[in-house]
Amino acid sequence: MTHTSGLVRYEMNPKFTADLRANPDKAWTPEEEIAYLLDATPPFAAGQGWDYSDTNYIVLGMIMEKATGTPYIDLLRGRVLRPLGLEDTFPVTSRVVPGLVQGYAGPGNPFGGTDEMISGGRFAFNPQFEWTGGGVVSTAADLARWAKALYEGRAFDPSLLPAMLDGVPADLGPGSEYGLGVIIRPTPLGISYGHSGFFPGYLTEMMYFPEHGIAVAAQVNTSVGQAVGKSMTRVVLDLAAIAAGPGAGKSGHI
Description:
Blueprint: H1 14-22, H2 30-34, H3 55-68, H4 72-81, E1 90-91, E2 118-119, E3 122-123, E4 136-137, H5 140-151, H6 161-164, E5 168-169, E6 177-178, E7 183-187, E8 190-199, E9 202-209, E10 214-220, H7 232-244
Antiparallel strand pairs: 1-4, 2-3, 5-6, 6-7, 7-8, 8-9, 9-10
């Protein structure tokens, strides 16, 4: 969960993206996805570096199912979504995603190939492949609620928080660290906990500021960063500064 395993990203493998475009309705198994990296050279030995990789979350999902004997989707709904009342968040299982706004990924992108990701009510490919690596639809409001619950220790036993927030140096900006599935970084509003999100056609940023008890999330329907005009981190920081009120933001950077 700290991305120090050395497992490379299966979803960026050109063979995988080609197979994804060739089989847009396919429902992928984690074993099939892992197979795309079996002949790959790791960037470093386990524990000797840092490199973000969705593959780590796919492997974690396999471990979760093995340890509990329960499908991941049932664990997600039973342990997270229902108890926390996240009614606008759900796992994706097919190319038809109810309520999803059109997303724009730029012409010739390696996943869908076209700028518009939805045509005739169907996504360019089956987003189900993301599984535990991010195959979930949500809203900015639900993401902010989730951040408050997660980083205030209400999503699980609060005694686990120190382990989750014990980060390792990460290549995500000055002073940034990565804990157990969380980006930890200094900001003008103090330390922040959160995560970024990318999917073809969409960008997301979620941050929680413990000094202020504020959680902010933002989503845009483009994955072309230049189209936003500023980084998603900056968008969230600007919104959080407004929420925190006058006088906030005296230290840190970004």
